[in-house]
């Protein structure tokens, strides 16, 4: 049990940033406190943030705190909060908490420069950056320089572009819960956040694929494989045909399928080094709003049958496969049911294997496996788990007990 709450600041309350807030406040008792939000978009502010937290087209109405037909749990407030040095929020959002009779007030900022956000005064432990703008070390470091202790990126890190006369930075390390955050071994040491306070939560597809691949590789040894993710549409796609730098994303998101690219399979090689260069894949953008499916074809050592593979994956999901798979319990799931993507909306499992889709090809030379995942709710749940399991012990190891001064 944590001695105090982890103070988290959300930089970029888009779909992922907002859903992390929902996960925190819909699950009462999580030792996480949101102490501030920053959105540099000129048209956004407390009012629309409160609205989008209350009402979600996919996950429906906010389930935190008050419950009532006419009650609105999250309210906006245009009252500004002033910090030392004359820095101001543009307002705040308020969570009336009927559980203990108090009100949680979260300041909202509109800053393009992290140096202008009063992290120290807010007592920020972790900046959860879901803007997609700070995916190389030098840019993410700006949050640390501004007073944050840790930077947790919601997107996969990028390679720094080579510039003449400038040394390349070390790429930010990505973690997938249950896979490489303790190398699947509870006896292993956790990530060294004191040495490297900037890290990434990888991506939703990498999380699903790495979870599935880690179990298969440990049991059978993956020789090689290819993956296609049938991916839900995202907000970087056009709702109607329109301009986009990626041509396939310039077409209307809800209409038809679009073959696209993904780095998720290659990134599994960073999460599981033994698989580097052995997996690759592509993406097909579809018309579902939240749930995706990984279709993985692999060559496995020993040429197990589809029935053998299903039996093994089901044992991992049930927690009876052995200690080495313990950290996949509650993250890798298995079902013999026939699923539609809509059945998986809101499911927090990293990978839900649909057993009936598992097939052996050419006398089991290759095995084909399908796994569903909610690319928002699953992903934000894993991010909250990482904070609880790894960020909190690190903050407590510092011997400090900084509490938010505002809120």
Q: What's the count of strands?
A: 16
Could you name the ranges where pLDDT drops below 50 across 5 or more consecutive residues? 66-70, 402-407
Helix fraction, binned, reads 10-25%
Q: Helical stretch count?
A: 8
Cα distance spanning the termini: 23 Å
- Average residue-wise pLDDT: 88
CA-based gyration radius? 22 Å
Strands across the major sheet, in which order?
3-4-5-2-1-6-7-8
Share of β-strand residues:
15-25%
Write the layout of secondary structure elements.
Layout: E1 6-11, H1 15-26, E2 32-38, H2 46-54, E3 75-77, E4 91-97, E5 102-109, H3 119-122, E6 126-129, H4 137-145, E7 150-153, E8 198-200, H5 204-220, E9 222-231, E10 258-260, H6 264-271, E11 279-285, E12 291-300, H7 306-318, E13 332-335, E14 351-354, E15 359-361, E16 366-374, H8 377-397
Parallel strand pairs: 1-2, 1-6, 2-5, 6-7, 7-8, 9-11, 13-14
Antiparallel strand pairs: 3-4, 4-5, 9-12, 10-11, 12-16, 14-16, 15-16
Helix pairs in contact: 1-8, 5-6
Q: Can you put this structure into words, describing what you see?
A:
By secondary structure, this protein is an alpha/beta fold. It has 2 domains: 6-202 and 380-397, 3-Layer(aba) Sandwich (Rossmann fold); 204-375, 2-Layer Sandwich (Dihydrodipicolinate Reductase, domain 2), CATH 3.30.360. The protein has 8 helices and 16 strands. It has helices spanning 15-26, 46-54, 119-122, 137-145, 204-220, 264-271, 306-318, 377-397, and strands spanning 6-11, 32-38, 75-77, 91-97, 102-109, 126-129, 150-153, 198-200, 222-231, 258-260, 279-285, 291-300, 332-335, 351-354, 359-361, 366-374. Strands 3-4-5-2-1-6-7-8 form an 8-stranded mixed beta sheet, with helices on both faces. Helix 1 (15-26) crosses helix 8 and helix 5 packs across helix 6. The radius of gyration is 22 Å and the shape is globular. The two termini are 23 Å apart.
